[in-house]
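[job 0417] fold request received: PhzF family phenazine biosynthesis protein
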Amino acid sequence: MTEILRYAAFTSTPAGGNPAGVVLDARELSDADMLAIAAELGYSETAFLHPTGDRQYRIQYFSPLAEVAFCGHATIAASVALGERIGPGTVNLTTQAGPVPVEIAVGSTGGIIAILTSPPSSTRPASEEEVRPVLDALGWSADDVDTAYPAHVANAGNDHLVLAAASRDRLADLDYDFDALGKIMTERGWTTVHLFWAESPSVFHARDPFPPGGVVEDPATGAAAAAFTGYLRALGRLADDTVLTLHQGVDMGRPSLLTCTTIPGDSRVKVSGTAVPID
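[job 0417] inference complete; emitting structure tokens
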């Protein structure tokens, strides 16, 4: 019988963070089986690991509606679950988006910390044709956008539209057209729309609508955080020694904390966080 674990990632309490399903040995499951499990759990993603060697795994991610190439929070959840069973050290995950090594360590309070290295990041300016219908679906006007941060399509395993809110209040007031935004995102191949507000040059608040996965909003999105970090670096707003802090999930009652750092001379991004079992 398949053992299905439930973890909340990027949090130290089960009431916070982003819930993820984790199956540590999915070698006997078909894609249809995995999709059915993800749909029954109803979390934004469930991670399925296929052991291939010593601390080596092929990993697949499924939302309730489809397979996803890469998912940060489910990677953190799965890695913490592994760390609790096999101990600290590096595990090497093979995703559809490429290799993702994860450092597993014991934190100062005794809990497990997972630090993933994302697939290579890239970013490009979003066109007016791409941005305008998204603003319409969000119910945002041009004045609701912070032009200091240009809209981009950023990637670190998946494409995300990155869009800056002009104020914290604008970010907090999220009431969008689910079907309209979902249609746009599916046509463009975007996993989430990464909405953010800059509290400071290194502290940001974010929200990530995820209608293509059948989820109104993701409480913590590690893949989007990695893509966003790459975006900031490409704009020249983030030095290699800067630690980026992202607060997500606050407005939906599941506060999450994501920490990102760049790698000198490398387009990949390190994303770190904790995870705890959900009873």
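[job 0417] notes: The CA atoms of residues 135 and 141 lie 7 Å apart. The mean pLDDT is 96.
[job 0417] exit 0
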